[in-house]
Task: structure prediction
Amino acid sequence: LIPVIGAQIDLRAVPGDIPQFHVPVPEPYVQGTYFDDEDRRLSKILVAAGLVPSISVAKRLISQGAVELIATSGQSQTLTKDLPMAAIGWGTDDVLRVGKRRYVRLV
Result:
C-alpha cells in the first residue's frame, strides 16, 4: 500500500475498467477450428485476447511465471505451463494478468 494524500492505493488490486474477453466454447462436432477442445491452450487465448503479440511470446511469459489467474474470490494462481483452458479451472469473471499492467476479464 502506498499513501497518497490521505488515501492508500493497493498496487496489486485489479483495476475495475479492464477489457472483457469471451472465451470460445469448443464445439464437439467441429474439429480443426482454432479453438477446438484439444487446441484451446492458454497461449492462444493470450494472443486472441490481445495481451501478447504472438504465441512464442505467450509461451515465454508463461514459462517465466508472468501469467496469473485471479479468481473472483481474490485468490491468484501463477500459471507456469501452457495447459488447455479446461485444465486450468477458470471461471466466469476471473481475470488473466500478464506482467504488471495487462489485464483481461474472462467471460
Summary: The chain has three helices and seven strands. The chain has a mean pLDDT of 82.
